[in-house]
Amino acid sequence: MSGSYYVPASSKWPILMVVVLAFLAIGAASSLSFGHGFGLFIAGLVGVFVMMFVWFRDVIHESRSGLYDAQMDRSFRMGMAWFIFSEIMFFAAFFGALFYIRVFALPWLDGEGAKGISALLWPDFSASWPLLKTPSDAFSGPVDVVDPWHLPLLNTLLLVSSSITLTIAHHGVKKDQRNKAKLWLFLTLILGFSFLIVQGIEYVEAYTRLGLTLQAGVYGGTFFLLTGFHGAHVTLGACVLTVMFVRLWRGHFSPRSHFGFEAASWYWHFVDVVWLGLFIFVYVV
Question: Where are the bilayer-spanning segments (predicted)?
Fold first, then answer.
C-alpha cells in the first residue's frame, strides 16, 4: 500500500443512515407537532445507533488491517474538522434565534425600535427576559426559571472536569501509557453520564415545579431547544467515548495511530465549549 491511496469498497451504510435519519426527524417532528409518531422516532433512533455500530466497525477493521496511510489520515482529519464546523453552525443558528428574540423581537412588541408599532398587537405587554408573562393568553409562561447556580453550575463543573480528564487520557494514549489512558477515560465517562443524569433531574424539576415546558412561551421553547439538542450531543459523545474505552481495553490505538480517539476528543471538547455558551446565555444572562 506504500505510495497508494486506499479506496474503500462501495458501502450501503450511507444510504441506510439517510433512511434512519429521515425516520428520526419525521418521528420527532410528528411527536412534537401532532402527538403521535413516537414509535417512528424510536425506530429511527435505534437505527442510527445500529448504523453507527456497523459503519464504525467496518472503518475500524480497515484501520486495524493497515489499509490507511497518511493521506487517509489527512482525509479523516479534514472530514472531522468540517463535521465540527457544521455542528458549530447548527448551534449558531439556535443562539442566533435566541439573540434575535431577546434583542429585537421582544423590544418591538414593547413598542421600542423601528418596528415598535408591533406593540399594537398586545398593548399591555411588557418585555422582559426570562419571559414569564407571554404576550398572548394562549400560552402561559413558566412559574419561575431554573436557578443557574445549582444544577446548571454542577453540570458546568462536571463537563469542564470531563474535558480535563479526557485531555489527560489523550496524553496517556500519545505516551503509550495505556493504564493511565483507561483510568482517566473511565473518569471522563463517569462525569459525562453524570451530566446527563443531572440534566434529567433538572428537566423533571422544570416540568413539575417550575411549569417550564415546551409550551411555556418562547422562553420554554428556546430553553429546551438549546439544552435538549446539547444533551443529545452529550449522549452521542458519551457513547462514542464508550466505544473508545472498549477499544483501549482491546489493545487498539498506538502513539502513532489513534485518530479515532483524537476525533472523539475533539467532539467532546466542542460539546463542552457549547455548554459554556449555554450556561452563560440561557441560564445566567
Answer: 12-32, 38-60, 81-101, 149-169, 181-201, 221-246, 266-284
Beta carbons of 256 and 269 less than 8 angstroms apart:
no
Residue 142 CA to residue 249 CA, distance in Å, equals 47
CATH architecture of residue range(s) 10-67: Orthogonal Bundle (1.10)
Q: Which CATH code of 1.20.140.10, 3.30.2020.30, 3.40.50.300, 1.20.120.80 fits the domain covering 75-284?
A: 1.20.120.80
CA angle (23 as vertex; 18, 28 as ends), nearest 5: 125
Direct distance between the N- and C-terminal alpha carbons of the chain, in angstroms, rounded to an integer: 55
- C-alpha cell read off for 197: 443524569
The amino acid at 9: A
Question: Is pLDDT at 68 greater than 90 in this prediction?
Answer: no
250-264, pLDDT tens digit by residue?
999 999 899 999 999
C-alpha cell at 60: 475500524
Rounded to the nearest 10 degrees, the angle between the axes of helix 259-278 and helix 70-100 is 10
